[in-house]
Design brief:
With 400 residues, the chain is of the alpha+beta class. It has 18 helices and 10 strands. It has a 5-stranded mixed β-sheet with strand order 1-2-8-5-3. Strands 4-10-9 form a 3-stranded antiparallel β-sheet. A two-stranded antiparallel sheet has the order 6-7. Helix 13 crosses helix 15. It binds protoporphyrin IX containing FE. The site of protoporphyrin IX containing FE has 30 residues, from helix 5, helix 12, helix 13 and helix 18.
Length: 400
């Protein structure tokens, strides 16, 4: 695809979405971008940022005009190495082929029988951590989410730490060239080779997600060469996203005791799924992903030339007052339409793990509400810095 000509129309801004200051608090930058227009050119990285809800949704739903192949990350190197062959970066029939085996494993029906196990694990994990009185909620969430995802993947025991350590690096490598990017690139790049060597058919559990990928290749549903890139659907996409999303939910509930009380209330209690969904709306764990325009087009009234790199700002769409009204910045677990958020994507690439993430959120919050009368912050949480992900690495909380 040819590089686009410099834009001749449309709003422009010198905001750096990936600076330390913006990663620390992106919301003032997002508000500025939303005021500037539906698509704002950022010359610093030669990308079009999409900060508003309606136009971001339209772009996500139009996967013929806004393609994902060689477009999700901001560098050619990441697009042609780390992302090549993954479901996230595929279009059309190739995307449909890659998505099918994932839907079998991650669909609502596949998960129904596993609900009791997830609730049981949530109950036990919460109990173990909260008995100390003060605990690191990020560590609790990590243990719970990784315990499910790594186990259900059927990963050999010896590979689990490597996979957990590399997951965030993969997202860092989606951003522009920077100190973070160059540090992450070798770690993310080594992942495919590691999976190909260490996660072979004879080493994965047969009745697992990865076992099912090898079976799908044997049945001819996918190609043998699809198996390793498809593993990233679980390895990269299924860990830090949910871990950060749930950690943020607990931070927001601790900071808003009246909302936590509503979650525990009885007449009727607010829904744990509603609380998780609202936290995802207001603090998206994935702040942005890319697309490229496959033809000359428009986003709102802004002309977008063929080949342009766009950057869908999920993190900004959840705060757009055009969609959410005057309370866009307020955390409200009973918000009736919070499930409209774009934090789990929309259109063809809607998160394949959305039912699992929701089940994990529901189970952990149900266990917490049953066991913990009140939650309070017990110190300053440490932010996890990443070019794409947002959330906290630690979250000290006290139970009352
Ligand atoms: C709160 C947790 C999660 C968040 C915020 C999240 C976010 C997202 C987003 C924004 C997309 C859309 C990408 C795009 O438009 O290009 C996506 C896609 C995807 N997610 Fe998630 N995700 C979460 C949990 C999970 C889990 C638990 C899994 C698997 C175990 C998973 C697997 C995937 C896969 C495979 C895709 C690609 C789908 C496709 O391209 O067709 N995600 N996710």
């Amino acid at each position: 695809m040819p590089r686009p000509a410099p834009p001749t129309s449309g709003p422009s801004s010198d905001i750096d979405l990936f600076s330390h200051a913006t990663l620390t608090d992106p919301y003032p930058a997002y508000a500025t971008l939303r005021d500037l227009g539906p698509a704002v050119h950022l010359p610093r990285h030669d990308i079009w940022a999409l900060p508003r809800y309606d136009e971001a949704l339209a772009v996500l739903k139009d996967s013929d005009t806004f393609v994902s192949d060689e477009a999700v990350a901001l560098t050619d190197l990441a697009n042609t190495t780390i992302l090549k062959g993954t479901v996230l970066a595929a279009d059309g029939p190739v995307h449909a082929r890659l998505r099918r085996p994932l839907s079998r494993q991650l669909g609502r029906r596949a998960l129904a029988g596993r609900r009791p196990d997830v609730h049981e694990l949530a109950d036990a994990t919460v109990r173990r951590h909260v008995t100390a009185g003060t605990f690191d909620a990020a560590e609790m969430v990590r243990e719970f989410v990784a315990g499910i995802v790594l186990e259900w993947m059927g990963l050999p025991e010896v590979t689990r730490d490597t996979v957990l350590d590399a997951a965030a690096a993969i997202f860092d490598a989606f951003g522009p060239e920077s100190e973070r990017y160059f540090k992450a690139l070798p770690v993310a790049g080594a992942m495919a080779a590691f999976l190909a060597q260490e996660v072979t058919r004879d080493k994965v559990r047969p009745d697992s997600w990865l076992g099912a990928l090898y079976d799908a290749a044997d049945e001819g549903l996918i190609h043998q060469t699809d198996v390793v890139p498809l593993m990233s659907a679980y390895v990269a996409a299924g860990l830090d996203t949910t871990i950060l999303g749930l950690t943020t939910t607990l931070r927001l509930l601790a900071e808003h005791p009246e909302q936590y009380e509503r979650l525990r209330g009885e007449t009727p209690a607010s829904s744990p799924v509603g609380a998780f969904t609202e936290a995802l709306r207001i603090e998206a764990p994935v702040q942005g992903f890319g697309r490229k325009a496959s033809r000359d087009t428009h986003i709102g009234d802004v002309a977008i030339p063929e080949g342009s790199q766009v950057w869908v700002l999920y993190g900004s769409t959840g705060r757009d007052a055009r969609k959410w009204g005057d309370t866009a910045d307020t955390f409200d677990i009973d918000r009736p339409d919070s499930a409209d958020h774009l934090t789990l994507g929309a259109g063809a690439h809607t998160c394949a793990g959305n039912h699992l993430a929701t089940l994990q959120g529901e189970a952990l919050l149900t266990a917490l509400a049953a066991q913990v009368p009140a939650l309070k912050p017990a110190g300053t949480p440490e932010r996890e810095f990443n070019q794409v992900l947002r959330g906290h690495a630690t979250l000290p909380l006290t139970v009352a």
